[in-house]
Amino acid sequence: MKLGGGSRVLLIEDDPAVREGLELALSRHGHGVRAVGSGEQGLERLRADVPDVVVLDLMLPGMDGFEVCRRIRAAGDVPIIMLTARGDDMDVVAGLEAGADDYVVKPVQPRVLEARIRAVLRRIGRDQAELERHGDLTIDRAGLVVSKNGEPVNLAPTELRLLLELSGTPGRVHSRQQLLESVWEHGYFGDSRLVDACVQRLRAKIEDDSAAPVYVQTVRGFGYRFGPV
Amino acid sequence: MRARLLSAFALLCVVTAVAVAGGLYVLARNEILRRTQDAAVESMRDRLETLYPLRTLTPNQEELGMIAATASDNDSPAIAIQGETHSPLPPPPPGNLRPGGIRGRIPDTISPELRRMVAEGRTAWQRVALQDGVWLIVGMPLLVAEPGAPTRPSGIEVYAARSLQSEQRSIDRIAWLAWLTSGAALAFAIVLALLATRGVLRPVRELGRAARLLGEGELRTRIAVRGSDELADVARTFNNTAAELERHVAQLREMEADARRFVADVSHELRTPLAALAAVAEVLDEEAAGLPEPAGRAARLVSQETLNLTGLVNDLIEISRFDSGVAALALNEVDVAELVRATLRARGWSDAVDTDLPPGVTVRLDPRRVDVILANLVGNALRHGEPPVTLRLTAEPHHITVEVRDHGPGLDEEVLPHVFDRFYKASAARARSEGSGLGLAIARENARLHHGDLTVTNAPDGGALFTLHLPRPPRTPAGAPE
Questions:
Q1: What is the CATH topology of the domain spanning A8-121?
Q2: What domains does chain B contain, in order, with CATH numbers?
Q3: Are B378 and B389 in contact (CB under 8 A)?
Q4: Chain A window 187-206: which residues touch B at a Cβ cutoff of 8 Å?
């Protein structure tokens, strides 16, 4: 269904025209849009009512987008899509490190933003599989719970999707391009920094030592591989 | 320059030395010989005077022998001749050619001219070179002076030989000295020339080097000014010119940087209103069908032009990133054939392009940037060229080549050098809506960012042929799969 987005979107964008334009376009796609003009307002809004996804402009007056991103991420696992200016590479990297799941470049076409929103909100398929154990890590594909040494690990949706993708075929190398297509639905030419940033965040949560990863290993020049543990 | 200066100095020196030494040599030699001759003639005359008065005018051989003995002394043996008769000669020594044996050989050494002159009553001499050195042969007639009658030759002639060996040695020594002096002068001249050429050539060479550096764009090149001669003037002029040039170039660069910064700033400023426009353009476009004309057409136009404007601003921002040097590569090991297929697939061109893609060609590159290049080339070929559009990948050990060509008429020769220029339009009439005018410029910048290049020619059998070269950096061992 074309207008069947139906998600609750929190839009944090300071420019009134852009805010109104995006609100208009996303509403047409069937999303319930809450639009606010600053990071402070956005965080306040978030405390009252957790949306399905946050669309966050990085260039904000007052508290900047990175700080807002970090605080949202600290508070919960709501997916974050950031709006960045084209060419500001450092912003992209910093935003991804702050915990954003994906980004779109301004001026953004609503169609593209809609596709990104759909991708981060995509339901993760549940399997009726047994619990998988990989070393200290337990992956429950039915309950979508990951625990380490018995303790549940809090993973953002993108991080969980990435881990499930990699651990589905232990030992196989996944190229960044493949991961971009399967996890982010970015098509072939997405930004591989998305993968790298997400791997970093994932490692910080599941590895004993991020610098010497056991579960998500880098195969230089090719991509990533789960294990061997 | 150095060779010319050196040879000029050497030549000058040689000519001078040869002239001076040669002149002195000739003078000294003549003087030595003249004195020797005068002395020989004088002493012979003195000795012959003791013969007077002559006892007979028709002496026999024995009397001729006595005359010869009188005319001889230790150094110069003599013989006396009258007509065909001459004083007795010593028997030729068995070894022959001893210095003392000259007397026996005198008759052979007397030339007919000498004899004729002596026969006429004059004292004459001649130098002859024999095997044992140079000899002076002096011929002197015995004259008869009778009262009342003119002096006349008696017919008796005396010839004495005197060795010139010691004189020859003196002359040789003079010649040797002349050579030595000339040689020393030549060596001195060469040293002087070397010093002089160094003094002249070093600044000249320094100037040449500085000029070359300046030409290569090293605008801060200056040279040290030494002394106050013409060369120093040239150096000063050079420095002033270089300073002026540097100032001008800096000014131009600054202006260019300003212009580019302005473009970048404008592009960034346009982005926010454009973001709002882009957000609603789609809404407008989708509602256009339901709008009454002409509002529907206006809505579609606004939507379409918003998209074009977005593309233009994005391209301007992209190219200003190349200009400011912040464009960076996100390198990945990529299967090129797969990348090409994805590029075509993403734009719905898979059926429109004939591809030749050998499998298994993996290169470390930035897939997004190479996609931009390929999309631009193939898009241009499909839009402006004639089908079939072909894309061919060839892999070499150190680089890969992607050729994109169409089979249309190709590009005009005068257009070829400009196709990568910004906002260059092959034909003034071409519609603006076909692209931002920056596509090929961006494609080439992307290729160069990979240390590769993008070039264009016309294929021999028609059609434009774009060639993308990308280097294949050697894979590090750590990058190998396990």
A1: Rossmann fold (3.40.50)
A2: 1-86+116-218 (no CATH), 230-323 (1.10.287.130), 332-479 (3.30.565.10)
A3: yes
A4: 187-193
Higher pLDDT, A96 or B482: A96
Whole-number pLDDT of residue B434: 59
Listed as ranges, residues in chain B with pLDDT below 50 are 96-100, 429-433, 477-482
Residues of chain A with Cβ-Cβ distance to B478 below 8 Å are: 220-221
| Chain A residue nearest residue B363, CA to CA | A221
Q: Is the ipTM of this complex over 0.95?
A: no
CATH number for the domain running over A132-226: 1.10.10.10
What is Dmax (Cα atoms) for chain A?
52
A156: amino acid identity, one letter: A
For residue A120, pLDDT over 60 is answered with yes
Residues of chain A found within 8 Å of residue B314, distances taken between Cβ atoms: 86, 107
User: In B, which residues are within 8 Å of A190 by CB distance?
Assistant: 368
Give the burial string for B139-171 (b: 16+ CB within 10 Å, else e).
bbbbebeeeeeeeeebebbbbbbbbbeebbeeb
A142 CA to chain B: closest CA distance, Å?
32
**A28 touches B: beta carbon within 8 Å:** yes
Contacts (Cβ under 8 Å, ≥6 apart) of A139 = A131, A132, A133, A146, A163, A164, A167
* Dihedral over Cα of A93, A98, A103, A108: its sign: negative
